[in-house]
Queue: 2 jobs
Job 1
Amino acid sequence: MTGDVLVQVKNLTKSFRTGGGLLHAVDDVSFEIMRGETLALVGESGCGKSTLGRLLLRLIPATSGSVFMDGKELTALKGEALRQARKEMQLVFQDPYSSLDPRKTIRSIISEPLRAFKIPKNEQETILADLAENTGIPQEFLNRYPHELSGGQRQRVGIARALALRPKLIVCDEPVSALDVSIQAQILNLLNDLQSSYALTYLFISHDLSVVRYLANRVLVMFLGKICEIGSAEEIFSHPHHPYTHFLLAATPTLDPHQSVDDMETLGGEIPSPIHPPSGCRFHTRCPYACEKCRTEEPVLTTGEGTSGYACHYPL
Ligand SMILES: Nc1ncnc2c1ncn2[C@@H]1O[C@H](COP(=O)(O)OP(=O)(O)OP(=O)(O)O)[C@@H](O)[C@H]1O
Ligand code: SF4
Ligand SMILES: [Mg+2]
């Protein structure tokens, strides 16, 4: 980590219009991603992780707020300027199968971004060979089709394609969740190796904290569209300040091999609706420490920019 900011997110909000009313998927979120780091984004299903990842990559438009990359405001770009900016940021999906065109060969899939950006043909071959080698795809696989590959091999293809244009930022959205546990470590190791050789910055989305622990430098915890806590992985895993972070960790059995299922504290209660989020602290309906203030006053993140901090009136 060199300590300079690659991505700056300011007051980013995304609401979806639904039959039941406005759904606040990401609600006034501000934080930074440092160049060369892995920032893990964690939280329960539906808290807005994928929406936030897609907003960063400008795959969906924001309702309000802004995203800066290397000082350039992505949220203000249009047309060709946006297309060029897209080279610098890529997405690796959870399910590589559904994101790979079944009618195309692996060669054609990996080199698709090179064709889209009109990289000369002779260079394409060299880049392709390097990508295959660096992601552990044997040359003979290049003429095969996605269905002829295993899940792990397909994820290597998804990663190779994401690397083709030498992006600065990769959003990995649950990149190993669909894979067998035995294959997960291989892909995580690959992502780790590629990070240094390609000078990558990762936003690593996962609901699995044991996976996050493996490679995160910092962790951002979300609940119902808001940041609960952000901080170094060391700090978050050893001294969480926000009760929600604490319960997420306590509910992750693999973190402590001596812990039995009986010892695990469970995170009770239903996740409230993002259409009608609770007043005050959004976690108050599930928080054992909730007081009157929590029901009426929304806690603010202790650092405005969100390098590290928490949003709780009564931190642990
Ligand atoms: N296109 C859409 N239209 C309406 N609502 C949406 C849309 N996309 C996402 N949502 C809603 O926004 C909220 C956040 O969804 P999102 O997919 O970002 O969550 P997530 O944290 O990635 O969940 P998971 O862990 O299940 O992948 C959810 O309530 C979801 O139903
Ligand atoms: S603000 Fe109150 S309800 Fe919210 S997490 Fe902190 S103690 Fe719990
Ligand atoms: Mg998701």
Note: The mean pLDDT is 92.
Job 2
Amino acid sequence: MKEALVFNIQRFSIHDGEGIRSTVFFKGCGLHCKWCHNPESQSYQKQIIRYEERCKNCKACMNFCPHQGIKEVKGKIELDRKNCHTCGTCLDYCVYNALEIAGKPYTANQLVEIVKRDRMLYEESGGGVTLSGGEVMSQSIGFLLELCKKLKRLGIHITIDTCGLAPRESYQQLVPYVDAFLYDIKTIDQQKHELFVGDGLETILDNLIEINKMDAIITIRVAVIGGFNDREKEIQEMIQWLVMNQIKVKKIDLLPYHEAGSIKYQRLGRSYEKKKMSVPSPEKMEAIKNIFIEHGFQNISIGG
Ligand code: SF4
Ligand code: SF4
């Protein structure tokens, strides 16, 4: 039976598309955006998360770990991630909830059973289910087709939140079942993309052209990062590309960068590479919004 790793299912979401939604966050993404506020979404593997501030150093986790995934250093416990098999045994012994595993396998049926509980709410609010990540489109297409067909049969509205880096065939096969796309564009500058986001800009733009040809309903999402893509030049380039390729944009979501996710890097044993990124001011966000308006875009939100 096909399964996919999910790291969160968020009910009552109002930021991931129309109405009230349940958002399913799948694990794994081919990009590595420096500002990613869900770093646990990047790896395709399960990961152990440690909330150091909750830890009372009772050592119960270490005593019951079957794989030497936790060691004692100068009287304090530390995760030894290279030995951790993410078996989850330690979670059962930590009464302080200081440990967590990011990533749980679900079948399509299991996900449908969970999200359909809020069906009435979707109907009343014009909402539905958003499949997000990580990069949901990089999950197995067999799994995604099964999930989307089942949701469709129940009449549940489906939105896909994608960064665009996935096989073109996956988009071609899935578009007929998807009601709306939230499509991330970070920059169309190749060098900047490689430096801050990773390879794949060409694929991302090609896939956008492809789903546009297939008449997908598209919201373009732009994470606005100070020092990366917040200058008029970068925004103009992005707009020119959208216009030149006749992308039919239903809405533009401008999402200001924030640093709220930085603590999560520490919990995963990673360091947060802030580089030269900064939080754009409200005035800057308004100025960017106005550039889109000047080019004829009408439905623009700041903050999603
Ligand atoms: S998840 Fe398993 S292997 Fe990893 S630290 Fe906990 S008990 Fe040890
Ligand atoms: S069991 Fe929990 S509280 Fe105790 S040492 Fe391990 S992580 Fe800390």
Note: Residues 47-102 form a domain with the Alpha-Beta Plaits fold (CATH 3.30.70.20).
